[in-house]
Every structure is written in C-alpha cells, then in structure tokens.
Design goal:
It is a single chain. By secondary structure, the chain is an alpha+beta fold. The protein folds into two domains: 87 residues, Alpha-Beta Plaits; 94 residues, Alpha-Beta Plaits (2-Layer Sandwich). It contains three helices and eleven strands, in the order E-E-E-E-E-H-E-H-E-E-H-E-E-E. The strands form two sheets. Strands 1, 4, 5, 6, 7, 8, 9, 10 and 11 form a nine-stranded mixed sheet that branches. Strands 2-3 form a two-stranded parallel sheet. The protein starts with a strand and ends with a strand. About 3% of the residues have low confidence.
C-alpha cells in the first residue's frame, strides 16, 4: 500500500511526538491525519515544510524512495525572500558548498505562484518592502534542511517550502491535510 499525504505546516512526520514533561510537544502528528496502522514514512519532511509525504507498508519501497543512492528526484516549490535573477540562481545549478557537504547540481527555475495553493496557517512572514519569488527546485539528495540552506547560501532565504513531487508521485488533487491511498 502507498499513501500520498499532503502534509500541512507544523505537522511532525511521525505517528507520535514525545515531550518528557507533558507527553506531547503541541504539534500535530501523522496519527492526527492518517488512521491507517502499520504504515511508515518513506523519508521525512521538516515540521515547517509542507507537501508530499509518502507512507507505505512496503519496506523495500520505503528504502528505495528514501535512500539517496536511488536518486529519486524530489520537486519543491519554494517561496524565497527577494527577487533573484537567473544569474543569482546559477550556483544552485552547479552545486553549492554548505559547509558539511557540497550539493549536487539542482534543476532550478523561477515559476509563477503555483495554482490551487492553499493558505498556510500561520501565514508566512512577509515584509512589505521586500518582494518574494517562487522557485521550482529539483534535487536527488534530500539532506537535512537542504533546500532551505541552499537558498539562504545564495542570499534568498526560504519563506515557504512545499514538496510537490517525489519521482512520479505528486500532490495533484490532494487537498492539504488529506491523503490518497494507492495499491502498490
């Protein structure tokens, strides 16, 4: 079984969140959205990121989707602060040094705000005097906070990050906070 989940902002990518003081850290978890037992996330998505999370009961598929050696392309819609030029984005296309690793070249392009985009709750922090720009970034890696670190490195901090696709799987026709079950 494969579950495509359009994860909302501020949801933890596990079925339980534990805080030694009160048993829960205040964030919603996958359990609050997906009542299907014995499925596990194939990879992670930060609490402050939104979009596609794939869950499955198939350990082999889970490994193939989350292991970087299989080079599954992940497509992100990224709203950044500022108005980068094509030249500003060139370092991302070549790979950037993030200190602990050098990224592989990314496929990066400026796009219009994605159609059918849901409102984020809470809304992003926008400054009236500084424009924002939407980018589509495709990578085959997926290290911790990689896309956010990449855009910050070239001077355009990420304000909103939505994973649109992993390989052939997308969030098309899946409302935010909803999921779709596919048979594997």
């Amino acid at each position: 079984m494969i579950i495509l989940f359009n994860k909302p902002f501020n949801v933890v990518c596990q079925f339980s969140a534990h805080d030694p003081k009160n048993g829960k850290d205040g964030h919603a978890t996958l359990k609050d959205f997906i009542p299907i037992p014995e499925v596990y996330a194939a990879g992670r998505l930060d609490t402050d990121s939104e979009g596609l999370l794939i869950l499955t009961d198939d350990g082999v598929l889970q490994h193939r989707l989350s292991d970087p050696k299989y080079k599954e392309i992940k497509t992100y819609w990224v709203q950044v602060e500022g108005a980068p030029t094509d030249e500003d984005l060139q370092p991302l296309r070549k790979g950037v040094d993030l200190g602990d690793f050098f990224t592989k070249p990314a496929d990066v392009q400026m796009i219009a705000e994605p159609a059918n985009l849901w409102p984020r709750n809470p809304p992003i922090r926008e400054r009236k005097a500084i424009p924002t720009t939407w980018l589509q970034i495709k990578i085959s890696e997926g290290k911790n906070r990689q896309v956010r670190r990449m855009t910050a490195k070239v001077g355009f901090p990420t304000l909103r990050l939505i994973r649109y696709a992993i390989g052939r799987y997308t969030i098309d026709d899946i409302e935010n906070g909803q999921y779709k079950v596919l048979q594997s």
